[in-house]
Design brief:
This protein is 18% helix and 24% strand. It is built from three helices and five strands; from the N terminus they run H-E-E-E-E-H-E-H. The protein has a five-stranded mixed beta sheet with strand order 4-3-2-1-5.
Length: 137
């Protein structure tokens, strides 16, 4: 109690002399880019510890892995190597711009739901000549 009285007596000056002066702050105009929601086709993990089970879902890409999906598209059991895919719905989502995750994309290519990518391997090494034999020193 004694400390609160001494604190109130610490300032005895006139408060009216302290007036706030307006300060102008130079603000840069910020243009926020328009970010449209992107739909992702990805896995939702289910199952218990060491026994995974995945559902294939179409979901807003900003949502967490266990978020509410827009649509269930199938399931994948990696232990039994079984899949159940709703191919027409997956093709519909891809047609409207949904992007599958790399793992889902590999699964869809293996199941021939989407066209497999043709990979052209290019070597960074110069081609070996047919008659050239490396000599040992």
């Amino acid at each position: 109690m004694q400390s609160s009285l001494s604190a109130s007596k610490a300032f005895t000056g006139n408060v009216s002399s302290f007036k706030a002066t307006p300060v102008s702050v130079a603000r840069t105009s910020r243009v926020t880019p328009l970010v449209e929601a992107r739909v992702a086709i990805r896995f939702q993990r289910f199952g218990r510890n060491k026994l995974p089970f995945y559902r294939l879902v179409a979901i807003d890409s900003r949502d967490r892995r266990e978020g509410r999906p827009l649509e269930y598209l199938g399931w994948y059991d990696p232990l039994k190597k079984e899949t159940n895919l709703n191919a027409p719905a997956i093709k519909k989502w891809i047609a409207v711009g949904a992007l599958p995750s790399p793992t889902v994309e590999n699964l869809l290519m293996k199941a021939f739901v989407i066209e497999p990518k043709v990979r052209v391997w290019t070597s960074t090494k110069p081609p070996k000549e047919a008659g050239a034999v490396k000599e040992k020193n």
